[in-house]
Amino acid sequence: MSAAIIDGKAIAAQLRTRIAAQVARFRQSKGVAPGLAVVLVGEDPASQVYVRNKGKASVAAGIDSFEHRLDAATSQDELLALIGRLNADPSIHGILVQLPLPPQIDAGRVIDAIDPDKDVDGFHISNVGRLNTGQPGMVPCTPLGCLMMLRDHLGDLSGAEAVVLGRSNIVGKPMAQLLLRDNATVTIAHSRTRDLADICRRAEILVAAAGRPGMIGADWIRPGATVIDVGINRVPAASGKTRLVGDVEFDAAVAVAGAITPVPGGVGPMTIACLLANTLTAACRAHGVPAPEGLTT
Ligand code: GUN
User: Fold this and answer.
1) Domain harbouring 188, CATH code
2) Which residues does a 6 A CB cutoff place in the pocket of ligand 1?
3) Which residues form the catalytic set?
4) pLDDT greater than 90 at residue 296
5) Tell me: the pLDDT tens digits for 231-256?
6) How far is the CA of 160 from the centre of ligand 1 (A)?
7) Which residue, judged by its Cα, is nearest atom 11 of ligand 1?
8) Atom of ligand 1 nearest to the CA of 271
9) What is the pLDDT of residues 164-183, one digit of tens each?
10) Does residue 42 belong to any structural domain of this protein?
11) pTM to 2 decimals?
12) Domain count of the fold of the chain
């Protein structure tokens, strides 16, 4: 048997269509567009691609996109001053500072300077606290996208045995919280976990966010499991160029898993769609109207 392929690109396209319709309604009723500011410091090539894609997707959904590209030598104080201006600007509902930042800047200080209500990345400590205590806040885009795909494919996650491989603040930890909120039984595993393969093999839901290409082979996967591959790793290709692969050995895993997300075309498109969803949610809250159903948890 071969696993069902969870088509993140198609699910994201549907979500973006719904968001565009809701953005149009928001613009009509409020007379303003949701506004997203994306800040890029330096010239990291991967970050440049991400920022460009975020800007294009925003405009396609009817969201006003404001890109701030700053020199790699920008000081922390200059960046904090920009954040202060964006916090105070009523036409900006969402602020995203692309990570990583150059070494002279403390990312934690910058994230904590963002108004939590505009923190569409969901990285501010106040949003982390809200997620962990079950209060409405901003939920990080990548885990939110993974949760939407899991709900779409499995329906109710109650009681499911879930393993999250990876403990980053961006993916692993918020993913575990979201699964817990949906009543899954959650294990967070990581590079120091003993018997890692055995623990992964227990999972009915396996979310791979380790950042190591092809780390998870077929023998780490419980037969019939739903596998979400968050990895985006660039590796040399036979052609002499490079290609993107996930953390899961896709070709082998397909023979064992019940369902799996491909790389590319799985988690990546959902992350961008969820950024648009968070921006619309933030704009609605700023204008005192309820966020549309299904855009957040
Ligand atoms: N760099 C890699 N992933 C992300 C993300 O989700 N948000 C931001 N701001 N930077 C990133």
Assistant:
1) 3.40.50.720
2) 96-99, 121, 141-142, 170
3) 54, 98, 121
4) no
5) 999 999 999 999 999 999 999 999 99
6) 28
7) 99
8) 6
9) 999 999 999 999 999 999 99
10) yes
11) 0.97
12) 2
